[in-house]
UniProtKB/TrEMBL annotation:
Annotated Gene3D superfamilies: Glycogen Phosphorylase B
Source species of the chain: Proteus vulgaris
Keywords associated with the record: Transferase
InterPro entries per UniProt: Glyco_trans_1
Keyword Transferase: yes
Xref: SUPFAM superfamilies: UDP-Glycosyltransferase/glycogen phosphorylase
Recorded superkingdom: Bacteria
Organism lineage: Bacteria, Pseudomonadati, Pseudomonadota, Gammaproteobacteria, Enterobacterales
Transmembrane region(s): none
GO biological process, one term: lipopolysaccharide biosynthetic process
Protein name: Gt1
Length: 367
């Protein structure tokens, strides 16, 4: 008997990948699930209910939340033994009673230890962060089978002398983006002036996402270039306050949105702004390209190797450079259209969410 485990995923891109994988398994009946258990988090359960995905195909489906070092005590009640456990994204710090493990790796702090995010951190925070990810690094090294989302991540791990067998299964966009009937409306904030160029950011406000720089970018656009654009976010109210975005007149917020609302978010912006300093393979730029939305993003290899010539790149450490790129690009319709067309070509080279699910299952069958 096998186990698919995503009880440790509660937000962000990991949740989206898990939902997409489960949706493909259930709706397309990729494989016989009668000998497979699945453990999902309550967040994933909530999202699956919204898209009407039930888990009756699995032998057993459990909703259990695993946080940090602690194993959910309800897991002990199951008392099942597994041949193979696929952890969609690890690491985990406990046994799940399996002979073999396949573990998804999406930890850029480990793959790219020398990164620009550390420039934004205090000495104490740097030390704590490095200790935390050193422990994670040691745990990942114990796994015999890892799955990464891009070749550059595999290369980074091999350069760090990982001995694991590392497979590449590319990230991609969810099949929801191909099904307009599944798209949910999004409530736009009051006062949003649609006549202005609108930049959108979709995701959370983790430190490495580098969102705080947009406050300075906005000031430069207004004072130096006399350009007034909208910035639209999908953050919690608390995140907006912490970033001091809540009192900026042209900064707007939809609040957190669901996967089904993502397509219409892209439909309501003129371009994606993505100033991240650290990623393995975020699906956000790919989703934007799929939705014919130009991408303005950081000039790092983990983005340039994915977006290629389909994005407009800036120095993520320089608010001046970001503002200069915006000022010189937003009125150049030919440039933006060229990036949109290049983006569609990039998207067409990627596997579908069905292909990704098939590759995951093939790994489980051939370990």
């Amino acid at each position: 008997m096998n186990l698919i485990f995503c009880g440790n995923l509660h937000n962000g891109g990991g949740v989206q990948v898990a939902i997409s994988f489960i949706q493909e398994l259930v709706t397309n009946k990729i494989t016989d699930l009668s000998n497979t258990d699945i453990i999902i988090s309550s967040k994933i359960e909530e999202e699956l209910e919204k898209i009407k995905i039930n888990l009756n195909e699995f032998k057993n489906a459990y909703t259990m939340n695993f946080y940090g070092l602690r194993k959910n005590k309800d897991f002990k009640v199951i008392n099942n033994k597994y041949n193979i456990c696929f952890i969609i994204f690890g690491p985990i710090y406990y046994s799940l009673n399996s002979e073999k493990y396949i573990v998804g790796f999406a930890q850029p702090w480990i793959a790219y230890k020398d990164n620009d995010v550390y420039l934004k951190m205090s000495l104490i925070s740097k030390i704590k962060n490095k200790i935390f990810f050193t422990v994670k690094d040691l745990i990942f090294r114990k796994y015999k089978h890892l799955v990464v989302e891009h070749e550059h991540v595999k290369t980074a791990l091999l350069e760090k002398n990982y001995k694991s067998k590392i497979e590449v299964v590319s990230n991609t966009y969810s099949s929801i983006f191909d099904d307009k009937n599944s798209w949910d409306k999004i409530d736009l904030p009051k006062g949003l002036d649609n006549s202005k160029f609108t930049f959108g950011y979709i995701g959370r406000s983790y430190l490495h996402k580098n969102l705080k720089i947009l406050k300075k970018v906005n000031q430069i656009l207004l004072s130096k270039y006399n350009i007034d654009v909208n910035f639209l976010f999908t953050l919690s109210n608390e995140e907006m306050k912490i970033l001091e975005f809540d009192n900026i007149p042209n900064f707007y917020n939809t609040g957190c949105i669901t996967l089904n609302q993502c397509p219409n978010f892209y439909n309501n912006i003129d371009a994606l702004i993505f100033p991240t300093m650290l990623e393995c393979f975020s699906a956000t730029p790919i989703e934007a390209m799929k939705m014919n939305t130009p991408v303005f993003c950081s000039n790092y290899p983990f983005l340039t190797e994915i977006c290629k010539n389909a994005a407009l790149y800036f120095d993520a450490t320089s608010s001046e450079d970001i503002a200069k790129l915006i000022a010189g690009s937003i009125n150049n319709k030919n440039l933006l259209e060229d990036k949109i067309q290049n983006g569609l070509k990039v998207v067409n080279t990627l596997p579908s969410s069905y292909d990704r699910a098939m590759k995951y299952i093939n790994l489980m069958n051939n370990i």
